[in-house]
Amino acid sequence: MPQIALNRLLQRPTVSTVVIGARDEEQLKQNLGAVGWNLSPEQAARLDDASTVTLPYPYWHQRGFEERNPSLV
Asked: Which domain of life is it from (predicted)?
């Protein structure tokens, strides 16, 4: 799971870098295993759907006014 989470972060266009830490050499190797492959678009969409949270006010309200609040990405 950590490799999937790190890989998903690395695929996001708004994330420029990911800082990792490790208790030992084995955990470092596991974390570095997140590099060199990509999730499929379908897999990434499933993760995005599973991690969607309801935005607090005023953010959910502003989503109704996309012409005034364009998306950053």
From this structure: Bacteria
34 and 62 in contact (C-beta within 8 Å)? no
Token code pair at residue 3:
């490799």
Phi-psi region of 8 (alpha: psi -120 to 50; beta: other; left: phi over 0): alpha
pLDDT tens, residue by residue, 23-67: 999 999 999 999 999 999 999 999 999 998 888 888 888 877 877
For the entire predicted model, the pTM comes to 0.67
Q: Show me where the domains of the chain are located.
A: 2-65
Nearest Cα to 7, choosing from 29, 41, 37, 46?
37
